[in-house]
Amino acid sequence: MKKIILIISIITALLLLTIALIWTWAYRTYFYTKPLTQTQLKDLTPDWTKATKGNWSPWYTDPADPTNTKTWNPTASFNHWLTTIPDQNKAWPILIDTILANPQIFDRKDLGNYPDNPEHWNQITTLIQSTQGQNAIAQLKKALTRPTLGCGLYSSTGTHEHQALLKHGLQDDNWNPNPDPNPNSMGILLPALGPLRNSTKFLKSAAIYELINNNPDEFVELVNVMYTSAQLANEYPIVISQLVEIAIKSTANDLIMWALEQHPESFIDQHLAKLSSIIEDAGIQTFTWQGEALFFQDTLRRTTDGKGPINPNKINTISGSNYIPTNLPAAQLHPSLQRLFYIHALIGKQAQLRSRIPWDPTLQSSIVIYKQQKDSLNKVNQILMDTLLPAMDQAAARFQTHAQESIGTRTLLALHRHKLRHNTFPQTLNDLDQDLLTINPMDIFTGQPLHYTPTNEGPLLYALGNDRDDDQGRYKKGVLSITKPIDADWPMFSNHKLNTLYPDD
């Protein structure tokens, strides 16, 4: 009997030891995270003002709270800041009302196209000339030159959009009169970005119409409104918002290049100087990673109970849940969260470096940075990072692309101003009058000046592209992508001219 009991005891002990070893292995593999060093902890919290411009922060104090306790609630903080802005300084109330009032204008898929299709262009011209079209342009000018977008962060319809929907007899199935006071960043709506892009397309069509009808003053004004409106997209500066801002500015640059190609005789020096100053005032931007870090941290703070670690049950429903986030400072959070925040910041900082000009091919990609750090994450954290990490390298490349477009557009404007002054294009960029070009006409791939040749068809201005050899301005689709080497150059032509010259590309 004693022998049987001994055997059972040994088997039980071995079984318990096996379970303990398996649990230890599973814990270390799926949940354990090595703590950060003191040096790493110092860089754990980003400078949030880089994303919020000092107007709000991730931390919020409810005015109704007698204890004045700060809680992590970026959406409430943002929405509270908006309440301090008078409606007359907000673009969104007028913008959404104008969009909903004119579906026959803003629902057109060909809005913003160049006038190559006579049938479509005649229809757009009729819309622009109509009373409704002119009123819409006037309303967009009024709205998009205001200093604040003013669209709140909610998981349901905001007040201004709700009121506009009701005004125009439309049903609002997403209205909540008592919206969640602390919605998950992954669940918030960004309803203004689409209307902003659509309004830009309409303004582009209106600008084309005005130039064709020999009204360059109005053309310049509309381009200015487009550029001014772009900055509104970046009020909540996550990746998609920044890309919308860049896209709007790129649309305006392309429109300027088209105008110089198709109707250069319409402009006097005052027009071209104004267009150049519009681009100059916007400046050359780099990717702001802190906005995406705020979104990332808000999402992950909702995956833990208190201090941590991450709760697997909350991960399963992270995209649709509104779990209350932990309010602990980053330095007091569980290492599993801290490590994620730290690696995300490393990737964001690298993306910002890669968004600068001139292009630096020696910089590692964000993906490489992530792969170098991935082994320091447990399996659960790896799944989270793989799921939530945006394509930051592509965003960085888009900023570089826009920088090159802006440099090229300003250089073309200077060349045309030179021709107005001297009746001919200069033979080289060095022959440009110094007051006409106050920037370095940089080829961002080489850091050297853009290549330039005057031709009978106008100025041929081009960058070498990321293969960095001179193909005499030969273009091939894909060269603008920056990230993949293409055996071609990057001519500073509008999309319209590129499609005309290289239809097969």
- Counting DSSP E segments of at least 2 residues, the number of strands comes to 5
**End-to-end span in angstroms?**
87 Å
Rg, Å, rounded: 28 Å
Physical arrangement of strands within the biggest beta sheet: 3-4-5
Low-confidence stretches: 19-29
The residue-averaged pLDDT reads: 91
Q: How helix-rich are the residues, as a percent range?
A: 40-55%
Strand content: under 5%
Mind summarizing the main beta sheet?
3 strands, antiparallel
Number of helices: 20
Give the ordered list of helices and strands: HHHEEHHHHHHHHHHHHHHHHEEEH
Instruction: Name the shape in a single word.
Output: globular
Could you say which structural class the secondary elements and strand pairing correspond to?
Answer: mainly alpha
Provide structural commentary.
The protein has 505 residues and is mainly alpha-helical. Among the domains are: 92-145 and 190-263 and 270-282; 396-501, no CATH class. It is built from 20 helices and five strands. The chain has a three-stranded antiparallel sheet, covered by helices on one side. The longest helix is centred in the last third of the chain and has 31 residues, at 392-422. The protein starts with a helix and ends with a helix.
Furnish the topology, listing elements before pairings:
Elements: H1 2-30, H2 38-42, H3 49-52, E1 59-61, E2 70-72, H4 74-83, H5 92-101, H6 103-106, H7 118-129, H8 131-144, H9 159-167, H10 193-212, H11 216-230, H12 239-262, H13 269-282, H14 289-301, H15 312-315, H16 335-354, H17 366-374, H18 379-388, H19 392-422, E3 451-455, E4 458-463, E5 490-491, H20 495-501
Antiparallel strand pairs: 1-2, 3-4, 4-5
